[in-house]
Amino acid sequence: MKQRVLILASANNGLTQRAALAIRRSGRPTRTEIVHCATDIRAAVESNGFDIVVCPYLTRRIPADVHSKWTCIVVHPGPVGDRGPHSLDWAIRERQPLWGVTALTAVEEMDAGPIWSTRVFPLPAERKSAVYNTVVADAAIECLLEALDKAAGPARSPIPQAEAPRAVAHARTRPAMRRNDRAICWSDDAEEILSLVHAGDGSPGAGAIIGGAPVLVYDAFLGQVDPQAPPGAVIGRSDQAIEVACGDASLWIGRLQPSTVDRPSCKGPAVRVLAAAGFPVQSIPCERTGPCREIRYRREGDIGYLEFDFYNGAMDTARCDRLLAAFTHAAVQDTKVLVLANTGPYFSNGIDLNAVEWSGDPEGETWRNLLAINNVCRAILTCSTQVTVAAMSGNAGAGGVVLASSADLVVATEAVVFNPHYRTIGLSGSEFHTYTLPRRVGSASARRLLNECQPLDAAGAVEIGMIDAVAPSGRFGEWVAELAGECAHPARWAAIMAAKRTRSIDLNSVEAAELRRMAQDIFLDRNEFRRKRQEFVYKKSPHPSAAATGS
């Protein structure tokens, strides 16, 4: 009989979804329950119908009466020997060169159970959310599948921790990272502060005082050396980012959140958050070059690469406008193929709900953001000079999936999770999805994707035609370059371009129909977009399953 799996998770986040998809694809019937306390956990296991429990992301202790009855395999984001609730935070804070993930049995003492499987990997110097959604998630899926195979075998014997080899020799029990541990001192070196911000990004942030306002800091990048200003001074701004002087250099900061105890707050563009706190941001010098180049164009022979990295995959109005300008530039080059690729942990998740919330005019800004992302999709759909390839090495949701679907060819790594729907955030959707999705998967499958709001793995996306291919494991960039080279070959290029010319679709009519429905969603709030958006950005309830985005 097939091993039946119950997934217990604190949130239906990307790792939870990816684990469920991977376990189900391995042939095991799988059910996911989102739990927030011991009562929820007990209720989840009462229904039986499973053989083993796995916990890819669980922040609550499993009650003894549950783990004593059922084998419960917990993913711990640390190597063998590491214990504690903030393992990954400490590793990033201390800039550890090597880290790991371990699948272990739940016992009374947290993280002390026998070991089923473990992986180690070089730890990139990136923000926690990026690390978690890439190398940690990859290792976690490998560990879970290996653990399930072992648990289904005749031995069924995990290794006691005392006997397990330690690939990271200094791994140890660590305390919770307290608020003081996350506090920024601006006189410290910029790289020291950067590692502190990375360790709390995207939650709970790093505490600081900027312009007299207590804030939580996210989305930081190194700035200039020797800024000639006192530590903590705001010395520059670019778009919505600010530059803050540190002890030896400066940091660019893209996102802030008011640090409040008496009312809820959410992340927002740094300039807007400071302005709302009364800081005179308009008096700060505005620089042309910002914290980093979110959008880059490069060329290799007949192939152009338009690469982008948007925080949490969220594309606000200004970012959509910049991406459109970059695409327009790329489309007039004398190349044959144009590759659109993410360089961060997300391809795209569509519009930026946090920027919408901080705009002062949420309904109007949502509308402007939609029109801006529509313009990007239209440019891709109508590109008549090059074969367009969407190369996805990160997750995508809502309008981000549809943006990719606008390309002539869509490819992805096997790790990508797709959420091609809008309903969980109270929107009917735009981005020409009523044309691009049925064109790829057929009308019935498109309706199912939009209405059932279920995640899809890359293999499943190929099966229904939503994407064209899954890259071989471990060589995505090289494989995409080879594919682009094949598309640039005269015969194949001519065939693809000829097929593009045969399309006869009135995009103006498609967009007008979608926007009529969206106007009712946004301005009449017929599907509770306002409430659902605020629940998402203020984290009042479990997040929609990547159906919408924020920062």
TrEMBL record:
<comment type="similarity">
    <text>Belongs to the enoyl-CoA hydratase/isomerase family.</text>
</comment>
<comment type="function">
    <text>Could possibly oxidize fatty acids using specific components.</text>
</comment>
<dbReference type="InterPro" id="IPR018376">
    <property type="entry name" value="Enoyl-CoA_hyd/isom_CS"/>
</dbReference>
<dbReference type="InterPro" id="IPR011034">
    <property type="entry name" value="Formyl_transferase-like_C_sf"/>
</dbReference>
<keyword id="KW-0443">Lipid metabolism</keyword>
<feature type="domain" description="Formyl transferase C-terminal">
    <location>
        <begin position="178"/>
        <end position="259"/>
    </location>
</feature>
<dbReference type="GO" id="GO:0016740">
    <property type="term" value="F:transferase activity"/>
</dbReference>
<dbReference type="InterPro" id="IPR047180">
    <property type="entry name" value="HoxX-like"/>
</dbReference>
<dbReference type="Pfam" id="PF00378">
    <property type="entry name" value="ECH_1"/>
</dbReference>
<dbReference type="InterPro" id="IPR029045">
    <property type="entry name" value="ClpP/crotonase-like_dom_sf"/>
</dbReference>
<dbReference type="GO" id="GO:0006631">
    <property type="term" value="P:fatty acid metabolic process"/>
</dbReference>
<dbReference type="InterPro" id="IPR001753">
    <property type="entry name" value="Enoyl-CoA_hydra/iso"/>
</dbReference>
<dbReference type="Pfam" id="PF02911">
    <property type="entry name" value="Formyl_trans_C"/>
</dbReference>
<protein>
    <submittedName>
        <fullName>Formyl transferase</fullName>
    </submittedName>
</protein>
<dbReference type="InterPro" id="IPR005793">
    <property type="entry name" value="Formyl_trans_C"/>
</dbReference>
<dbReference type="InterPro" id="IPR036477">
    <property type="entry name" value="Formyl_transf_N_sf"/>
</dbReference>
<keyword id="KW-0808">Transferase</keyword>
<dbReference type="GO" id="GO:0004300">
    <property type="term" value="F:enoyl-CoA hydratase activity"/>
</dbReference>
<keyword id="KW-0276">Fatty acid metabolism</keyword>
